[in-house]
Amino acid sequence: MLRRRWLAAALAAVMLAVLAAGCGGGGNKDTVKVRIGEVTRSLFYAPQYVAIAKDMFKKEGLEVELTTTAGGDKTMTALLSGGIDVALVGSETSIYVYQQGSDDPIINFAQLTQTDGTFLVSREEIGDFDWNSLKGKVFLGQRKGGMPQMAGEFTLKKYGIDPQKDLTLIQNVEFANIPAAFASGTGEYVQLFEPQASIMEKEGKGHVIASFGTESGKLPYTVFMAKESYIDKNKDTVQKFTNAVFAAQKWVQDHSAEEIADVVLPFFPDAERDIVVKVIDRYKQQGSYATDPIVDEAEWNNLQDVMESAGELKTRAEHGKLVNNTFAEKVLK
């Protein structure tokens, strides 16, 4: 009898220990893994790195695996093939997939950046810059069909400049090689992302004279997106993901460029802190970081205007077809 009672007590103690292990500590059993593919590693995406570094995803019960997929086409291929669960890429890529008649459309659910992230850099220092001074010059632009190039052309047309006729437009240089091409003497002007623009300034090889982000207006420039089938099957995960994104957005809004830089620097081991601070401050000042995850309909339409102007839009996509704001709206409540 005593032996049976001892065994029962021992079994009860073991069960309590198992239950405690399941409910306490890291809660690994309940953690959901989400594979993110980012189109490039960029300070433009600072809120994403803040969310990772400050355990905002982890607090939502998510374990994120971040991969740099290097290019919009590769990012979308990885998403469509199931190599990643969520893509951080320009919304235009979801529209390109839509134009091809996909049975499982790509849905934008949480916006991260709301302007173009490139700057106009001149080889020579210019005092009072006038966009018309680009006429007749050699302009080293971004890849044709990509959002940076389309935003660049949209801006030029806004100032009455025909990109194909009024200047010599170079757009066949690979994205990663554009800064080196300009530094080696190609072009009189170049369209660059940060931190390359600020590095050019620091090295005395170029001068930032205008912002394409400011000129082209607000756009759903970089957005977290997933296949409709993934969202339908993982609504709770997508909601938790969006919660973490919004927490990071609020943190970025409330903290200085210096504080943000110190959090994201581990993601940029070769970067100089003063450059990182300068870049983040520049993006904050021009409102590039979205303040909430909502993909606004007016911005969505502006994006399609930019694509249409560049001749890259076959069919306009209704906001409701490729955007799901329910997760963003819930976190705002």
Automatic annotation (TrEMBL):
SUPFAM superfamilies: Periplasmic binding protein-like II (SSF53850). Residues 1-20 form the signal peptide. PANTHER family: ALIPHATIC SULFONATES-BINDING PROTEIN-RELATED, TAURINE-BINDING PERIPLASMIC PROTEIN. It is found in: Periplasm. Belongs to the bacterial solute-binding protein SsuA/TauA family. It holds the Pfam family NMT1_2. It comes from Paenibacillus spongiae. This is ABC transporter substrate-binding protein.
